[in-house]
Design goal:
Elements: H1 12-28, E1 35-36, E2 39-43, H2 44-64, H3 72-77, H4 86-105, H5 122-144, H6 152-166, E3 175-179, E4 184-188, E5 194-206, E6 209-220, E7 228-232, H7 234-241, E8 251-254, H8 256-267
Parallel strand pairs: 4-7
Antiparallel strand pairs: 1-2, 3-5, 4-5, 5-6, 7-8
GO molecular function: isomerase activity
InterPro entries: Maleyloyr_isom, MDMPI_metal-binding
Protein name: Maleylpyruvate isomerase family mycothiol-dependent enzyme
């Protein structure tokens, strides 16, 4: 697993539990048809159903100790139909969230589990689901206009995850990459951590499928070769990377083309 700005493992299960509780608390008071500003096609009930489904899915993975991707079809066939009312949605979310936390708490972090990322362990699913709950907690808060602070260390880890795993690239057989712009440094002003990212175009064939995507080569720390810098609090940078509104200022200085190339990576699809 890549090094993290936290300098060690964070209490991901505690964050998952706290942000899931906050998510539910906020949406319980929201009218079901109020629109989520970060998801214009969704209302509060859609948001509640979405996170419930996500937590149900990874709870199933953990409970079944599933490692074989061929078993995903059978897993998906057991999905529940969406409840037709708010009480049913809340009940589904409660069951899914409680089971996910209980299952992950009962597994050693190194336990093998199916995951789309390279790190196929219960430990990474803990990490991923903590960040999933955080981002959707923010979605819920923005829906009702009651935003609360984001933990600095969790946000810094979230920046690391987005850059390395969601948007990052490491050389793979069958793929080649070419730089599309000079390096850019991304720095937190409160978490004492920075990354240098180089936008690249990745092409080739992976698992028999053609690939043509924009990604980032990522390293820790600043780089004298960086042509630009993006700075902000860990929370604001995490929000920016997930296309959520930041609360504070994010400064962008240096080569405009390099900054635009980073933006292009962030708007490219995540496969």
């Amino acid at each position: 697993m890549p090094s993290r700005p936290s300098g060690g493992s964070l209490p991901f299960l505690d964050h998952l539990a706290a942000d899931s509780v906050r998510f539910r608390e906020v949406l319980t008071t929201a009218p079901g048809d109020v629109r989520a500003p970060t998801w214009p096609d969704w209302d509060a009930d859609d948001l509640l159903w979405h996170l419930g489904e996500v937590q149900w899915f990874w709870g199933e993975i953990a409970e079944r100790r599933l490692t074989d991707p061929a078993a995903l079809d059978a897993l998906n066939a057991s999905r529940e139909a969406r409840p037709g009312d708010r009480a049913g949605l809340l009940g589904f979310f409660d069951r899914a969230s409680e089971r996910l936390q209980r299952m992950l708490d009962g597994l050693a972090p190194e336990t093998p589990l199916w995951m789309w990322a390279d790190d196929k362990t219960a430990g990474y699913i803990r990490r991923r689901q903590a960040h999933e709950a955080l981002v959707h907690r923010l979605d819920a808060e923005l829906t009702v206009g009651d935003r609360t602070p984001i933990d600095c260390r969790l946000a810094a880890d979230g920046v690391d995850e987005v850059l390395r795993i969601m948007r990052g690239y490491e050389p793979e057989p069958g793929l080649t990459h070419t730089s599309s712009a000079p390096p850019v440094t991304i720095a937190t002003v409160d978490a004492m951590h920075s990354w240098t990212v180089t936008p690249v175009r990745v092409t080739g064939t992976f698992d028999g499928r053609p690939v043509d995507v924009q990604r980032l080569l990522v390293s820790d720390g600043p780089d004298a070769a960086a042509a630009a810098e993006i700075c902000g609090s860990a929370a604001d940078l995490d929000c920016w990377l997930w296309n959520r509104p930041a609360e504070g200022a994010i400064t962008r200085e240096g080569d405009a083309a390099a900054l635009a190339a980073v933006d292009a990576v962030l708007t490219d699809s995540i496969d």
